[in-house]
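Quick review question:
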């Protein structure tokens, strides 16, 4: 996978899983809450033989949305905004007009490594990082036709809205929390199924009581409302605050958008 340009891809510009991927000289920006280039390691043996070099992106990581180090395979000579103090606008010509060629004097010029069959014909002492090589004829990424006039009624916009917690409340006996999601959610993408208690994590701050377990003791549901059971050790004094967090990569909507760990509207007291 080489010399691709992607922007405004809200589910991530490039994502690879498995083994033996070759990811060279791509430029990806503005992927919203997701990372731009996602090299996702799920199993311990994943990404044997994977090589990631000469890429430019605001966010490159071993996670869909968080800054998780890529510490496997062969990873080098990438401009990763997570690791840089400079901004992406300081190295690319004009991100506002999608001119993603290297800016004059940019640190990505000659900062790549030569890869046979991929970077042939580069200018300068070394290839540039990213999809474009300075000093060569530029090219335009993307299609040049109008989607609606080409596809008409067959064109369907993707649902990329991420489910969120829109409300949380605690019962009068301090043993159940009701969490409400913005839409229907499931705990599996391939075979959507009902959420389980282990899909949530509880934490408590303040007060004198403590949680008996960070995992809810029970779960039931009604529509988009999930009732989580919990137990306290000690007598609460009213200063306790419980935070309800979705477990990472455990809760999804019907099209596979992942509920983020970080939420608003997810505390009760």
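Suggested answer, residue by residue:
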């Amino acid at each position: 996978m080489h010399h691709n340009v992607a922007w405004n891809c809200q589910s991530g510009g490039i994502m690879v899983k498995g083994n033996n991927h070759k990811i060279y000289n791509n430029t990806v920006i503005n992927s919203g809450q997701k990372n731009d280039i996602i090299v996702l390691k799920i199993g311990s043996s994943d990404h044997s033989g994977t090589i990631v070099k000469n890429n430019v992106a605001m966010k490159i990581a071993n996670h869909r949305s968080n800054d998780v180090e890529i510490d496997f395979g062969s990873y080098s000579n990438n401009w990763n905004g997570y690791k840089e103090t400079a901004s992406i606008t300081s190295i690319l010509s004009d991100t506002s007009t999608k001119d993603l060629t290297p800016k004059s004097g940019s640190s990505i010029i000659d900062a790549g490594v030569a890869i046979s069959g991929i970077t042939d014909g580069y200018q300068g002492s070394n290839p540039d990082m990213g999809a474009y090589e300075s000093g060569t004829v530029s090219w335009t990424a993307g299609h040049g036709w109008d989607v609606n006039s080409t596809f008409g009624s067959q064109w369907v916009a993707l649902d990329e809205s991420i489910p969120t917690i829109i409300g949380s409340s605690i019962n009068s006996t301090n043993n159940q929390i009701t969490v409400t999601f913005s839409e229907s959610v499931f705990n599996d993408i391939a075979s959507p199924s009902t959420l389980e208690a282990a899909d949530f994590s509880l934490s408590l701050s303040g007060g004198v009581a403590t949680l008996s377990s960070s995992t809810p003791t029970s779960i039931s549901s009604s529509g988009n409302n999930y009732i989580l059971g919990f137990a306290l050790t000690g007598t609460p004094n009213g200063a306790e605050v419980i935070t309800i967090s979705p477990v990472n990569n455990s809760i999804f909507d019907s099209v596979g958008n992942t509920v983020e760990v970080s939420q608003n509207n997810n505390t009760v007291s």
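Why it works: The two ends are 50 Å apart (CA to CA). The domain at 165-268 is CATH 2.60.40.1220 (Immunoglobulin-like).
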